[in-house]
């Protein structure tokens, strides 16, 4: 069952593998066409915004072609802190953690964890600047 508090909003269509591995804080918004491959837990804090077509992947496969022929699958959890904004079309890869109050630019491919209080963007995603309030 999808963790879905009363004050979260998921704009359809929304796609996921299992649903029961997704844990949402309060006030989470998923825009159109988001995908969450939740083979492992996907933990999302409160006050998080996802632009359209954001994809979150926990599933991964071996790099070795011989191993892939066995149809092996692995997974690593994804954690997204509170007060995060993920721009449209971003892809968050397995094992990534995004810190609190961070902004991920549209179209970014997040292959490594990103700290709190930064703006990060690109392919691969990297910190562009620190945020101050």
What is the element layout, followed by pairings?
Layout: E1 9-10, E2 14-16, E3 22-24, E4 28-30, E5 34-37, E6 42-44, E7 48-50, E8 55-57, E9 59-60, H1 65-68, E10 74-75, E11 78-80, E12 85-86, E13 91-92, E14 97-98, E15 103-104, E16 109-110, E17 118-121, E18 126-130
Parallel strand pairs: 1-4, 2-5, 3-6, 4-7, 5-8, 6-11, 7-12, 8-13, 11-14, 12-15, 13-16, 15-17
Antiparallel strand pairs: 9-10, 17-18
What is the alpha-carbon Rg in Å? 15 Å
Strand content: 35-45%
| Mean pLDDT value | 94
CATH architecture: 3 Solenoid
State the CATH topology: UDP N-Acetylglucosamine Acyltransferase, domain 1
In whole angstroms, how far apart are the ends? 37 Å
Helix content: under 10%
Give the number of helices.
Answer: 1
Principal-axes shape call = globular
Helix-strand sequence:
EEEEEEEEEHEEEEEEEEE
Within CATH, the superfamily carries the name Hexapeptide repeat proteins
Low-confidence stretches: none
How many discrete domains?
1
Task: Report the sheet with the most strands, covering strand number, pairing sense and barrel closure.
Answer: 7 strands, mixed
Overall CATH class: Mainly Beta
Structure characterization notes:
The chain has 133 residues and is mainly β. It has one domain: Hexapeptide repeat proteins (UDP N-Acetylglucosamine Acyltransferase, domain 1, 3 Solenoid). 3% of the residues lie in helices and 38% in strands. It is built from 1 helix and 18 strands. The longest helix has 4 residues.
Output the keywords:
single chain, 133 residues, mainly beta, UDP N-Acetylglucosamine Acyltransferase, domain 1, 5-stranded parallel beta sheet, 18 strands, 3% helix, 38% strand
């Amino acid at each position: 069952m999808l963790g879905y508090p009363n004050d979260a909003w998921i704009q359809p269509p929304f796609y996921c593998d299992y649903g029961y591995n997704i844990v949402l804080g309060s006030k989470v918004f998923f825009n159109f066409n988001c995908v969450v491959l939740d083979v492992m837990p996907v933990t999302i804090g409160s006050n998080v915004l996802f632009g359209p077509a954001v994809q979150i992947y926990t599933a991964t496969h071996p790099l070795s072609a011989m191993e892939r022929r066995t149809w092996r699958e692995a997974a690593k959890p994804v954690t997204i802190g509170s007060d995060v904004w993920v721009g449209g079309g971003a892809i968050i890869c397995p094992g990534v953690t995004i810190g609190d109050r961070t902004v991920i630019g549209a179209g970014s491919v997040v292959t490594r964890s990103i700290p709190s209080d930064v703006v990060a963007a690109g392919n691969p995603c990297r910190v562009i600047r620190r945020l101050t309030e």
